[in-house]
Amino acid sequence: xxxxxPPEYPRQPRWGADAADAAKSWVRRAQExxxxxxxxxxxEQALAERRARLDAEAALAAQRAAAELxxxxxxxxxxxxxxxxxxxxxxxYSPADLVEAYDANQVAADRRFKGExxxxxxxxxxxxRDLMNTPFVSLSTREKFSFRGVQCFFVEADADKxxxxxxxxxxxxxxxxxxxxxxxLLDCALAAD
Length: 193
What we know:
Elements lengths: L14 H76 L4 H10 L1 H8 L3 E13 L5 E5 L10 E4 L5 H4 L7 E12 L1 E10 L1
Parallel strand pairs: 3-5
Antiparallel strand pairs: 1-2, 1-4, 2-3, 4-5
Helix pairs in contact: 2-3
């Protein structure tokens, strides 16, 4: 008699072939994930580049708008300054008018003229430089022996314009009134001959 037959074990899977299939499947999934990640990164990069391009375009548009606005504001300011100068020239005072106003009431004259653009039409009494070497033109009043007058100070860059001026010549000088200090003082520019 033969003895009992050995128990039958379930057949073992073929690990080699199944493992290879599992590895291929895992590699395929990993490659698919890597491709999806690469595509997502590429889309994010494209989106970031598009945002950067739009931001740059918006910044450029803002710069253009700011430059246009600044140009408009400069143009308006220049127009206002031209109108202010034209108005001052139409209302040109004589040196005697300014001196009389300051002699009558210095406080009232300061309130009226100080810091304002004033045009003065008068005869040149003197062209020279003061103690600080600042070029100036003094305009005479109607009174022959008046101690007061109008003294117009110029920046050094305008000194070349003063070279051709002569004593007794009539000029119109445009300047900002600094008030009274011996003479009526103006910070000036030569307006017309």
